[in-house]
Design a protein that fits this description.
Layout: H1 2-75, H2 78-81
Length: 82
């Protein structure tokens, strides 16, 4: 009977230690996941800014193109001179 109690105690200690180990591993995974989430949020904000600036640049480029076409028509493009 005494060996059964010692065996049960050792199994309980082993199981408790394993549980604590898994808890620590899960806690570390949580911390890493939080760091990754923080980085992802910052990247999303930067991506949004880049997208907005890209749209603005495209609009400016289209306006420059329209003005270039108007200027060429006003002064006569080289193709029309020849």
């Amino acid at each position: 009977m005494d060996a059964f109690i010692v065996g049960t105690l050792l199994a309980s200690i082993g199981l408790g230690s394993f549980t604590l180990f898994l808890t620590y591993i899960n806690w570390r995974i949580l911390r890493v996941s939080e760091s990754i989430l923080s980085i992802s949020i910052r990247m999303l904000k930067e991506t949004i800014v880049i997208r907005e600036e890209t749209v603005l640049i495209r609009e400016i480029s289209e306006n420059v193109l329209v003005e270039s076409i108007r200027l060429r028509k006003a002064i006569g493009s080289p193709e029309e001179i020849e």
